[in-house]
């Protein structure tokens, strides 16, 4: 993350940090955890982050988790969508709507609409709605969610067997084709996480 990005986010961080002092201990701990988990989206240019929350996570009921996530996202001007709810967990994506929209515009229309049968005119919200419907129906995560999670499109399609690139290793996800953009993206996300951890330690 560059210095300008940190300066831009600093007032938001200070306002969010000061708000934590007025919340209960469970919300305080939960939002601090969220801050680190979503740091790639906040600081690293990551499009979104998928979170799986187990029942009574941080000893917080699901309904309160949703409320706290809403409060967190409002503070950081992020969006969230609940994708799957079961008796034991909830799957949630926290994302930047404009970033997902941009990624959808860049994604192969042939793959999205012809091969995967997504409707035309997709927006971030309609795409994630489709992801949720397919995940709930099939019981398996649709791998094209990688579009909304900031993985290079070549790696998303390669993992799904939808391009001819050879697998060239892993950096937290499988790399297909030229590894350089994938490694650079991973480095940005890791640097963002370290920055978030340091900010919390200093808070």
Describe this structure in words.
The structure is a single chain. The protein is an alpha+beta fold and 203 residues long. The protein has one domain. The chain is built from 9 helices and 5 strands, in the order αααβαββααααββα. The strands form 2 sheets. A 3-stranded antiparallel β-sheet has the order 1-3-2. The protein has a two-stranded antiparallel sheet with strand order 4-5. Strand 4 and strand 5 form a beta hairpin. Helix 2 packs across helix 4 and helix 2 packs antiparallel against helix 9. It is globular. The mean pLDDT is 91.
The overall average pLDDT, rounded, is 91
* DSSP summary, beta strand count: 5
Terminal CA distance: 19 Å
Percentage of β-strand residues? 5-15%
Share in helix: 55-70%
Radius of gyration: 18 Å
Let me know the largest β-sheet. 3 strands, antiparallel
């Amino acid at each position: 993350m560059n210095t300008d990005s940190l300066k831009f986010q600093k007032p938001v961080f200070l306002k969010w940090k000061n708000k934590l002092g007025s919340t209960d201990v469970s919300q305080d701990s939960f939002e601090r955890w969220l801050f680190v988990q979503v740091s790639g989206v906040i600081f690293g240019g990551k499009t979104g982050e998928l979170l799986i929350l187990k029942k009574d996570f941080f000893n917080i009921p699901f309904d309160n988790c949703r409320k706290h996530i809403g409060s967190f996202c409002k503070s950081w001007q992020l969006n969230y969508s609940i994708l799957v709810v079961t008796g034991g967990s909830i799957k949630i994506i926290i994302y930047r709507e404009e970033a997902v929209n941009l990624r959808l515009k860049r994604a192969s229309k042939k793959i999205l609409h012809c091969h995967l049968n997504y409707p035309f005119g997709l927006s971030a919200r309609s795409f994630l709605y489709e992801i949720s419907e397919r995940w709930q129906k099939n019981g398996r995560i649709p791998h094209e969610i990688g579009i909304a999670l900031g993985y290079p499109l070549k790696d998303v399609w390669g993992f799904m067997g939808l391009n001819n690139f050879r697998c060239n290793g892993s950096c937290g996800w499988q790399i297909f084709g030229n590894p350089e953009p994938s490694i650079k993206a991973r480095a940005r996300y890791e640097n963002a996480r370290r920055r978030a951890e340091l900010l919390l330690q200093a808070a």
